[in-house]
Amino acid sequence: MFSHNKRLQYTVRVSESNPGLANLLLEQFGGPQGELAAAMRYFTQALAEEDMGRKDMLFDIATEELSHLEIIGSLVAMLNRGAKGRLAEAVDSEADLFRSLQGAGNDSHVTQVLFGGGPALINSAGVPFSGAYVDSIGEPTADLRSNIAAEARAKIIYERLINVTEDVGVKDALTFLMTREIAHQKSFEKALYSMDKSFPPGKLPGDPRFTDLYVNTSPGEGDMAGPWNSGEKWQVLVPSDKNTPLDGGEGTASVELASDDKAAVDAFAARGASNPSRDPVTGADLGVLSQEPKDQ
Amino acid sequence: MFSHNKRLQYTVRVSESNPGLANLLLEQFGGPQGELAAAMRYFTQALAEEDMGRKDMLFDIATEELSHLEIIGSLVAMLNRGAKGRLAEAVDSEADLFRSLQGAGNDSHVTQVLFGGGPALINSAGVPFSGAYVDSIGEPTADLRSNIAAEARAKIIYERLINVTEDVGVKDALTFLMTREIAHQKSFEKALYSMDKSFPPGKLPGDPRFTDLYVNTSPGEGDMAGPWNSGEKWQVLVPSDKNTPLDGGEGTASVELASDDKAAVDAFAARGASNPSRDPVTGADLGVLSQEPKDQ
Amino acid sequence: MFSHNKRLQYTVRVSESNPGLANLLLEQFGGPQGELAAAMRYFTQALAEEDMGRKDMLFDIATEELSHLEIIGSLVAMLNRGAKGRLAEAVDSEADLFRSLQGAGNDSHVTQVLFGGGPALINSAGVPFSGAYVDSIGEPTADLRSNIAAEARAKIIYERLINVTEDVGVKDALTFLMTREIAHQKSFEKALYSMDKSFPPGKLPGDPRFTDLYVNTSPGEGDMAGPWNSGEKWQVLVPSDKNTPLDGGEGTASVELASDDKAAVDAFAARGASNPSRDPVTGADLGVLSQEPKDQ
Amino acid sequence: MFSHNKRLQYTVRVSESNPGLANLLLEQFGGPQGELAAAMRYFTQALAEEDMGRKDMLFDIATEELSHLEIIGSLVAMLNRGAKGRLAEAVDSEADLFRSLQGAGNDSHVTQVLFGGGPALINSAGVPFSGAYVDSIGEPTADLRSNIAAEARAKIIYERLINVTEDVGVKDALTFLMTREIAHQKSFEKALYSMDKSFPPGKLPGDPRFTDLYVNTSPGEGDMAGPWNSGEKWQVLVPSDKNTPLDGGEGTASVELASDDKAAVDAFAARGASNPSRDPVTGADLGVLSQEPKDQ
Amino acid sequence: MFSHNKRLQYTVRVSESNPGLANLLLEQFGGPQGELAAAMRYFTQALAEEDMGRKDMLFDIATEELSHLEIIGSLVAMLNRGAKGRLAEAVDSEADLFRSLQGAGNDSHVTQVLFGGGPALINSAGVPFSGAYVDSIGEPTADLRSNIAAEARAKIIYERLINVTEDVGVKDALTFLMTREIAHQKSFEKALYSMDKSFPPGKLPGDPRFTDLYVNTSPGEGDMAGPWNSGEKWQVLVPSDKNTPLDGGEGTASVELASDDKAAVDAFAARGASNPSRDPVTGADLGVLSQEPKDQ
Amino acid sequence: MFSHNKRLQYTVRVSESNPGLANLLLEQFGGPQGELAAAMRYFTQALAEEDMGRKDMLFDIATEELSHLEIIGSLVAMLNRGAKGRLAEAVDSEADLFRSLQGAGNDSHVTQVLFGGGPALINSAGVPFSGAYVDSIGEPTADLRSNIAAEARAKIIYERLINVTEDVGVKDALTFLMTREIAHQKSFEKALYSMDKSFPPGKLPGDPRFTDLYVNTSPGEGDMAGPWNSGEKWQVLVPSDKNTPLDGGEGTASVELASDDKAAVDAFAARGASNPSRDPVTGADLGVLSQEPKDQ
């Protein structure tokens, strides 16, 4: 069960109104690499986790991400606070308010008109948060790798936001949030490798004929060698008519159909058969040729 | 530029019609861990990649994933082929066709009615493929981790599909596809660690005050120690009134408002102020009390 | 800032595995009327709220909804726990596992195959949670009404789930969750009517010509009178050529165009003009008539 | 059945081309609080309504909302009409056309390039209309509250749009549309309270132990009292180890598993168990340490 | 402006409750080829149309599609009416209600639990209606072709639904709806070819080097000739190193960068450069090798 | 199976950095009329096609569209290349970087901050690519028409992009891509009309009472005659009380309910019945009237 402390985990001190910057920060509120996605990624994993140690860690980090969601949301609310008041109370002329929504250095019209300046579950383009951002699949050898990657991505988004922020207080809070992603990545890395075996993920082994095979499907000039395709552990194959399909078969797709199924498919095929020897007049032809009115 | 060979990379031999199984396989055609998501993840990275070695690798693997999309799509098409013919030609009674769409062991009504049995860009629940499944962000230290995680997740989904498949030919093709995810994960791992420095991701360092801090936000009974929160590299903090906010500040959110902004916010606040001393009659009260018709 | 207690707000005691029921319960985990939508609705409002009393209330209820999200998620995890193990470890035959995913009384294939039985941010049809479910717009006279309505809807979904649940422990937890929606609705009702003026919502008054007008756009047999369209406060209008448009104008849409804009629109119109006196041969005609191959 | 009159319900007179304003107005065409969402909310309720009076009202208001959709769509079409012609006929230089799409005070590139200046089923950020905006659930005690809230939200969005509109004709039409939302809200309020009992919504009563309970989950400094949590009808609880879980139980989640299920879960847990006493080298470590090329 | 007549355009007589069939019919209520998509496709085109004849036609057909939306919605409401009552009033045992939601021949749990049996803006899989289904782009030579194709698709979906419907009254109404799609397609065909020139669509001509070129990108065994790639109007090209790129250039992508841009890109590339001569230990290696606890 | 050649099908030569233009071009990378949608439309059709000629054509064109996706993605990558470097390496001041993201003539903040300047599966508004863009339904008489319409739409979007592009190299590549849509449309037209019968689409004939009927649902002033509603093949009907419903019935919706179903529906109706003779006090009334605090 959760409880809330009205104090933030990190103090938010914004220097001045800036709805355009608020808009950018929404990327980490309701965007794919944002704090809600992070919190829900770990929270959903925690609920079904069987290992008590990881479960504890997942609840710890999920809860901290909720506190970070509160920080980034507070930044958005403060950056928008003045604009919110001006629009709601209509203290400026309509022309001034219109310009303030769409002028240079600002793209906050959705935030202002639709959400009244409050933090909304959207990214910086106005796209609603999606549960599809959460890629938990209930297998720790995969989920921990997803968490590591998610922390890496979130770190980068914060880095980019810091690079475009002049406001000292905002930059300070963003740096805190960015740093915590680094710490969380370290925890998830430790958790992954404290399992006895994490590769290949899951339980089933691969087919040994294909586990060390690198298929050079983009061959020719520009081919490069690196540890990802060269060295003793790799067998490299440039596909050709001789070595493909990889199973040695004919490379077709087939299904055994019951006789009545086959009859139905044949009827379907016959109905839709094209006649390759016909060169028909087409709609494109009709659209080019000027047709005389029929009533003439 | 791409070219196509009409032979598949791996031969598809399906034993019998099975629209229910086709429906499950759509998970890897148009689902979040599916082959289109994989192909597009690597293809979009390849287009913007600056390192010629990784670019070559990304094109190689992206192209192979397109061939895998063709394999899984061919499996779906073959499993649905008989059902497609029967529905299009209406060879059975309406009752039989209705039952075949919704009977036990089958949930393929969307695939059949909407898509005519063809492979569609949906997952096994009928949710359309989304570009949001592709988490490329243009920074190799993050993208390669995303790729590693994505391959791990895809491997697991194939493993689960294999576990529910009786058809020998389908199982064989799925095992091939699963194995290739293992090989691809290995390539991405090699590429990640062949960079001089991949951690922390990106360029900006973290704030050293917070990089080794583990915040125990779910404290108490059930707390567990592990390498993710214990050992010399971790400083553990149980949040309390004394040690939070972590910046030592007051934990509030504030913004410096221009005076006219402040006036507008005050007006907005005054207009919406609640009167805590009032105990009003509410709509809930009205909904409980029987009101006499006014015209009586 | 948030903290977590590993104990639930309400104990979850599930009688037996039931992935089909788990699937239904997802409606209140990641669905439109679910607990995450509720928590985020109040949390986003709290962040931008100017009235300290309502802000406190919104944080209280948002936080409780997170605890309810944990309860419903724990119900899902427990109901799926056995099935998760069986599929991951492949302890049954493939045929049995396939049947268990799709048999009568069960529609949990997405939950099992894609999410491994963990609670996922989807509704009971597998549609991902959307930020669009959160209808906060930053104006308390509207948001509180949205909250009242949302609690009413959530209460009904719980009622329906209770009606289809045989498991005593699940029913008990659902009844708790349903009851809390009633209590929350009462709080939001009190908050709405403790404002000095909450109707019309916002600041701008309506145009008095149209505030008491009821337009009978579906006139004729079946017309009914009720307090929503009859009584002294309503003026009823059946639209006719005489009384519409309601502004007394000509009912057209027009724009003053600059002369060069007008010229461009005219050119556009001329290029796409249809010739009503032509009765052309069409693609439909071509598709009916058998065309002789041209090369004959 | 519907019929259409080529005259609008309210005359649209736009003063000049303004694609930027057209873009904002799309919020009420294809946005969450827009006229299509409104029309469909009431129309879907009308179709399944059992009370003939409400059914009549719902058809009346749904049909009027379609006429409002036509008004707002006509405003968009007129505001974009000049720009549409210029882009389609390429009457300006490419540079001028590019600037006109993206210059200050304008964010209409999606509307112009993708939709050719026509009104599109998107909101002002370009997000496609979603059926998820329609929150009808088929229970009048909930649906009428949803309608009341939806009208309140729509009124506010119109108010904000009016505040940023200088064009007298546009402002006039928007004021009409805003006013009608007020009238509709009044009708829905009357309909709600003309039921004998509308609270609690639905049929099932709540559990009396929890209907008057207010849980102070965000306790401490800043706690405020108001009618939503104080007075004789409220029992307030600050959660503590003593009074939670609220059912008096142990606060855990449990399920009775069949023995073979239990064995499968145990196997799953064992396979994924973490070893807390291991302090492993991790991928983060590998990413920091410079690795010597192996071939040296 | 719209008006409504409480009588349907076609009488709906349903023989018996059938929520499973109701669920399938939702495909044409809120699905991609459904009546709302059709109505909105033509309505949005009508609003911006410059040709008065087409505008009239588009309003006529859009309005009729709204009447068809009412018919298909009424079918859904009637098929669900009994089930709605049973669930809302809980007249059966919980087990019976659960089975009725998920039993063989039925997949209506979303419709029942979330929407209470009312017609909802979803397709038969529960996916919400999307504005993205409406492909109007504001150019008549394209939009009319989109309309023709949309009518063809809708005709096919109705045909499939008819094939799985036993209920005589439902089949009768569906046949009416299917037939109207045929009539509408004919109207749109006439409108397309009554323009002086409709091909190529739009205003700009193509580059004559590439308008009659067929690129055989999937060459080899299985190549087929047909009017789409053979005959005097086609020039066929099998891509090879000699004839590609088609512009005769080097086939690379390049950009002229300002010197400071170039420096920044170089720095970015250097930071992320991979070292192809390194064969690093990777996370996959760590996941295979059993690591000894460090504290030993 | 696919293979890749590192050379593009058409050489991309971009004159200078232009992230704003890159943003617009995304419309054809991840937008509804873009190259991925095209490739997937034809690829999914090819997989299930029964006619070997069309199957070959569909693979040819699908593969070429993938090569076009590579061209448009390369254009985006080149146009963003400088900006990517500047933001990642933070070579400018924060203020300059902020302005570069949001200044006049640029709306690329999503592309830059979230995707790091790489081509992303979004449209020009930042909306993720959706599988719903692909309207293949597995019936060639419908799918070929969808393909024709899709090519027409794509041609128009390219035409608009060309109209706003000053960069000679970009314009050249866009003209190539636009031209190929013309060629593809011609192929699909030929394929459609080389079938023996393509109208009406599918197998079932229409009901002859309704195939030649034009319903004038928007009658009155402004009615226009054209080949779509006049001439010998059309029967025109202006709906009136006398000639509707079109089946000659009563125009109601009805269902035969089992007696227990009927009892449940009656109970549901009774519980929710409105009392039309009551004129209740409502929440709107409460929100207008100032309520005295109860404790006074």
UniProtKB/TrEMBL annotation, chains A, B, C, D, E, F:
Listed name of the protein: Mn-containing catalase
Annotated binding of Ca(2+), by residue: 56, 60, 216, 218, 220
Keyword Manganese set for record: yes
Cofactor binding: number and manner: Binds 2 manganese ions per subunit. Binds 1 Ca(2+) ion per subunit.
Family as reported in the entry's similarity comment: Belongs to the manganese catalase family.
GO molecular function: metal ion binding
Pfam families: Mn_catalase (PF05067)
Residues at which Mn(2+) binds: 35, 65, 68, 151, 184
UniProt xrefs under InterPro entries: Ferritin-like, Ferritin-like_SF, Mn_catalase, Mn_catalase_dom
CDD domains (UniProt xref): Mn_catalase
Entry keyword set: Calcium, Manganese, Metal-binding
Keyword Chaperone: no
Cofactor(s) demanded: Mn(2+); Ca(2+)
